[in-house]
Design goal:
The complex is a heterodimer of chains A (about 230) and B (about 400). Chain A has about 230 residues and is an alpha/beta fold. Chain A has seven helices and ten strands. In chain A, the strands form two sheets. Chain A has a six-stranded mixed sheet, with helices on both faces. In chain A, α3 crosses α4 and α4 crosses α5. Chain A is globular and about 50 Å long. Chain B is an alpha+beta fold and about 400 residues long. In chain B, α2 runs antiparallel to α9. Chain B is about 60% helix and about 20% strand. In chain B, β6 and β7 form a beta hairpin. In chain B, strands 2-3-8-5-7-6 form a six-stranded mixed barrel, surrounded by four helices. Chain B is elongated and about 105 Å long. The longest helix of chain B has about 45 residues. The chains are: A alpha/beta (about 230), B alpha+beta (about 400). Chains A and B meet through α2 and α3 of A and α1, α10, α11 and α13 of B.
Chain lengths: ~230, ~400
């Protein structure tokens, strides 16, 4: 399997007044295409920082991060935006849908930024909403949808640019057990279709559903045998 | 991309109607004030200007106050003036108040004007009846007159005044024409007829000079052939007058309507600019209002900005979104302001009683100003939004 993500000695430091706090202390991580990886860690372990770096929302203080053959560390804001657009599909704990836009418009949004034609955008968004089982809800506003449905809209949105990695941050954290389970089912389905998924969570049981689990503790990453 | 941004901007404006309206209000007031003030000033001065223009820009009026050695201009001075290049004609004017009588009717407060044929050639007043005075009437021994409709009405009740004789200051004159002084837009003619309670009688200038008891002319109109050369001609006229009064100071003055008009034009432009400048203070205040609202909006929508960035929006795309929103607010305000300003102008010109003239310059200025305000005051908030770090933006709760 081909390697799509490679991290070597990633260090992230934050300046807090006079003190420098090191949140990531030399992370090494390799992810191959088609993997379903869970990054498990309690709050304060540095897992959010790691997710931000993987998602190109932030850059490491030092170390080497290669995503799809491209070095990320020295890219500027504009280049990072283009990489996110192409490589990463984000799924957040609290969905982050635009509340005044319909489900369809929310799913279309990433394509607006990549400059796709309106008709193509619409077709792709409709297809993906169908894929996540919401073909009946295309013109609903987020507040007219249940939490599980909103998260499925968010997943459709994450998929629309056909990203290299689906990056999910506590995707079931705001859902009840049953709908959480449905979302995980959807992840399994997507993974079986070959989609690479990286899921960040503090929940051991949720992490166990992934094919591979790594644990982050106090800024250090270790492979966990499930 | 632009269209998407426009739609998104519109959604945001529509979703906070009251706030958007209040934000735009400053621009509305500013633009309306600029448009109204410029339009009203231009309409009013335009009207005044056209009245002055009807007096004729192709002539100057020489008022010869004279000096102890020479009381005014004599006939040979007039001939010298008439011989100058570019002078089409010279029309001396004698004005006295006297009496007119006929068959027991006596008007004792009549304005008696002495004019020559050049005056009548340039005069735009219509004749109701008869003819104007001609060159052949100017020999000093021809007793003919042109009366106005007021005299005609009071002296010739149900009679044709033509070829009838009236007594003017004791001398019998034949009426050869009746002028319709109400037909003219000529301000001077209007003033002349109203200055005298009973009306105006025009007689040949030499006759009038004899009646007045003076020996020289104190008021002379000099008509130009080509107004483009008037500066040179005025200099020539001054040369002649200086010689005529033996280079004594303060013997004469020249009223030049052309230069007066130029001056009024300049003043009107200055006044417009000044008023527009004052009104544009409101625009600046309005712009600050927009900036404030946009800054609040950026803070409120921090999470949205973070999300858009996470989904692949680059800084420029975020900046454009916010600038378009600021522009939409200011332009909407500008359009409402233009309509409001024109409305105010229509009402104001009606109240003042001048003709309403639409000023495209003012409308362009209003539209341009509101776009500029949107760009200038939208820039900082948009820049702030675009430079937010996506992680910081997403983390905000």
């Amino acid at each position: 399997m081909s390697e799509i993500l490679s991290m070597k000695q990633i260090i992230k430091e934050y300046q807090m007044g006079d003190e420098t706090s090191t949140v990531l202390k030399g992370i090494n991580l390799n992810v191959n295409a088609g993997e379903f990886l869970a990054i498990l860690g309690p709050s304060g372990s540095g897992k959010s920082t790691l997710m931000n770096i993987i998602g190109c929302l932030d850059t490491p203080t030092s170390g080497e991060y290669i995503l799809s053959g491209r070095e990320i560390a020295n890219q500027d804001e504009k280049a990072l935006a283009h990489i996110r657009r192409k490589e990463i599909g984000f799924i957040f704990q609290s969905f982050y849908l635009l509340s005044r836009q319909t489900a369809l418009k929310n799913v279309e949004l990433p394509l607006v930024y990549s400059g796709s034609d309106k008709k193509i955008r619409r077709e792709m968004a409709e297809d993906l909403l169908k894929k996540v089982g919401l073909e009946e809800k295309t013109n609903h506003l987020p507040r007219q949808l249940s939490g599980g449905q909103q998260q499925r809209v968010a997943i459709a949105r994450a998929l629309i640019n056909n990203p290299t990695i689906l990056l999910a941050d506590e995707p079931t954290g705001a859902l009840d057990q049953k709908t959480g389970h449905q979302v995980m089912e959807l992840f399994h389905q997507l993974n079986s279709e070959g989609r690479t998924i990286i899921m960040i969570t503090h929940d051991v049981n949720l992490a166990k559903q992934a094919k591979r689990v790594v644990q982050i503790l106090d800024g250090n990453l270790m492979e966990e045998v499930v | 991309m632009l269209k998407e941004n426009l739609i998104m901007a519109w959604d945001n404006i529509r979703n906070s109607k009251m706030r958007s309206f209040l934000t735009s209000l400053g621009i509305v007031i500013g633009v309306a004030a600029v448009i109204a003030l410029i339009t009203i000033v231009q309409s009013a001065t335009g009207e005044m200007m056209s009245q002055f223009e009807s007096l004729g820009t192709d002539k100057i009026t020489v008022t010869a106050t004279g000096n102890p050695l020479k009381s005014g201009l004599n006939s040979s001075d007039l001939k010298t003036l008439e011989a100058l290049d570019n002078v089409a004609g010279v029309a001396p004017s004698v004005s006295i108040t006297g009496s007119a009588g006929r068959q027991g009717i006596l008007l004792d407060e009549v304005s008696i004007m002495g004019k020559n044929e050049k005056f009548f050639e340039a005069d735009t007043t219509e004749m109701m009846q008869g003819r104007k005075l001609a060159a052949s009437d100017m020999d000093g021994n021809t007793y003919v007159c042109v009366i106005d409709q007021d005299i005609a009405k009071s002296m010739f009740i149900n009679e044709n005044p033509l070829e009838q004789r009236i007594m003017v200051n004791g001398q019998s004159y034949a009426v050869v024409g009746v002028r319709d002084t109400e037909s003219t837009s000529d301000l001077m003619a209007g003033m002349n007829s109203s200055s005298s309670a009973d009306g105006t009688i025009i007689i040949p200038y030499k006759n009038a000079l004899a009646l007045s008891g003076a020996s020289n002319y104190s008021t002379v109109d000099v008509y130009f052939e080509n107004t483009d050369l008037s500066d040179q001609t005025i200099a020539d006229v001054e040369g002649v007058l200086d010689a005529a009064f033996n280079y004594k100071d303060n013997s004469y003055s020249i009223m030049n309507l052309g230069s007066l008009l130029d001056m009024m034009n300049t003043m009107s432009t200055l006044l417009s600019a000044l008023l527009a400048g004052i009104a544009s203070i409101a625009l600046v205040v309005g712009g600050i209002g927009i900036m404030n609202m946009m800054l609040v909006s950026v803070t409120e929508r921090t999470k949205e900005i973070g999300l858009r960035k996470a989904l692949g929006a680059d800084p420029l795309q975020i900046q454009v979104l916010f600038i378009i929103e600021a522009l939409a607010l200011s332009l909407a305000g500008g359009i409402i302001g233009i309509v409001l300003g024109l409305g105010i102008s229509v009402v104001a010109t009606m109240l003042i009683g001048t003709a309403f003239a639409i000023s495209w310059g003012a409308i362009g200025l209003g539209a341009g100003f509101s776009i500029a305000v949107g760009l200038i005051f939208g820039w900082t908030p948009a820049k702030k939004a675009s430079s937010l770090k996506p992680i910081d933006a997403l983390r905000t709760d």
